[in-house]
Design brief:
The protein is mostly helical and about 110 residues long. It has a domain at about 20-95. About 70% of the residues lie in helices and about 0% in strands. The chain has helices at about 1-10, 25-40, 45-95. Helix 2 packs antiparallel against helix 3 (about 45-95). The two termini are about 60 Å apart.
């Protein structure tokens, strides 16, 4: 998500000549009203059909972007896990190769338990 935000911050702002797109959540709220308005008046049916088609297209694009983002994030996390596993394997190997250190039976200033 951070990479996407960084990428978007470097992109130019939207053109004032371009069509305005609505967030999918807003489209899902408005869509039932478009459908009911289409049945009430036939003069706006072409506009309603165009808006409905556009909203579906935007929802599909949103779903595709979400899947791409999810796959990218999952791939990055899997790669990180692989790297950490290698580090753990190396540390375990280093620990197995170490000679055990002799532990003193009695320290100065401490009491012997046994």
């Amino acid at each position: 998500m951070t990479r996407l935000r960084q990428y978007l911050s470097t992109q130019p702002g939207p053109s004032t000549a371009d069509l305005v797109t609505l967030p999918p959540a807003l489209v899902s709220i408005l869509l039932p009203h478009f459908n009911s308005a289409a049945s009430a008046t036939s003069s706006h049916s072409t506009v309603t059909a165009a808006l409905t088609q556009r909203s579906r297209l935007l929802q599909e694009e949103n779903d595709e972007f979400y899947e791409l983002l999810k796959r990218g994030e999952t791939g990055r996390l899997k790669e990180e896990v692989r790297g950490l596993r290698k580090v753990v394997e190396k540390l375990e190997g280093a620990l197995r190769g170490m000679q055990p250190l002799p532990l003193p039976l009695h320290h100065k200033g401490s009491r012997q338990i046994f």
